[in-house]
Design a protein that fits this description.
Helix content: under 10%
Strand content: over 45%
Number of strands: 43
Oligomer: single chain
Radius of gyration: 25 Å
Amino acid sequence: DTVEGGEHFLYAPVVHAWPEARFRLLQSPPGATIDSVLGVVRWVASGASGLFEIEAWNEAGRTTHFFTVVVRSIANAEWEIVQPRPFDTPVNAAACAAPQALWLARDSAIVSRSTDGGVIWTHHTLPGTNAQVLDVSAFDAERAVVGTRSGHVMKTTDGGVTWTVLLSLVNERFGNVHFHDLNHGVAITPDPDKESRADIYLTSDGGMTWNRVETVVPAKFPIDNTLTFSDAKNGWFASSNTAGSDPSDATILRTTDGGRNWSEHAITAQHVSAISFSTNGRGFAVDDVSGMVRRSVNGGESWRAAFYPMNGRRNADVQAFPGSDVVWVFNDEDAWISGDLGGSWKRTALAPAGALKDAVFLDSLTGWAVSASGIVQRLRSNPLLAALSPAAALPADAVLDEAWPNPVRGGLVMLPFTLPGETNATLRVSNSAGVEIAVPYRARASAGTQSVPFDVSTLPAGVYFFSLETETSTQIKRFILLR
């Protein structure tokens, strides 16, 4: 769960037991209390997070429950909500086309538009269909193109009041639509007759005519809203291959000629929620299922897992910018920014708004985050001023932070720590009996924050301890492995 600093947090566990269970806190942040009869936990949120361990017991036995509460600071929030009311239909995609001009693609054939940075919205219904609007590509505050689940590509030139059908195909769905300029565009749909390929349609006259790419594009099911281009020639989208009798990992499809030819590349992920590329072939892909961020340095030909601090969250979107070293990664709680192409990261706190759907930017520091329900928030300050400052808030002493995710259910757990200056640092992992089982980190370390990945896939369920040893101190924390 996530709460604001100073907020009164209340939690009541549900336990079915006879005789009635009694409760106590085995682990909690300072100031937390529990009602021994009802099990109600009360806490005034403070610090960065709180790890709770509740024990319920009676004469028949006992059980424990673990959870972590993340605390965000309102005073330092870089994002502010500008549209607080959920819409009556979900948002599927967003686009930013000009200063203050935003577009949303929504269910029930609705397209929404704002011309004041997301505060006031007008809503328009597409003619002749009630299908989901899956994607939107916008030119400015008046002109945009959308793709629908019913196989339509439609265009407006008057802010959404009227729409013209550019392409209409039976049994198709256009969840990826992109225009490089007013004339040149790409629309992608699964082939309705062949499960092993996608159909790519290209236009060079603003959508008046379309040509289907004749070469086979090996994509079982293009993932909606993953189509991206760094320029008119270089583009990418992701394909999901988990369905059918022979499921496999997702793949990345790449073009270097504007969409006429595509090559397939492995990414070792079952899902991809977004892709974005900067210059010189440097790109990022996020996965909102596993939470892992992956990185490519060769234009998407190969991908490797990047052990970044936001891994493990529901990372739903990534934004990189040609000609810039800025990268953003978004999940439901946070927006992480890097000013050096992923070399270092700063966390910015999103206002609580539910599941994130999309993030859009006019430039690398003018952006909006949109939830699936339609709540819109915008970036209100430049986080890089602090992120790239050499004097940015290092602690006086070494700090061992909480493991995440915690509890962990397999795969990787991240073990973060922060050092005030250069020192010898060792990170050790022990089991509940105190037996050391691994030393995932031992080095002469520089000042700053690091997150060390530790693979728990072969370990049995239980409680594990991890310790940070420096030249001046030793600190110990623990994480829970569930199966």
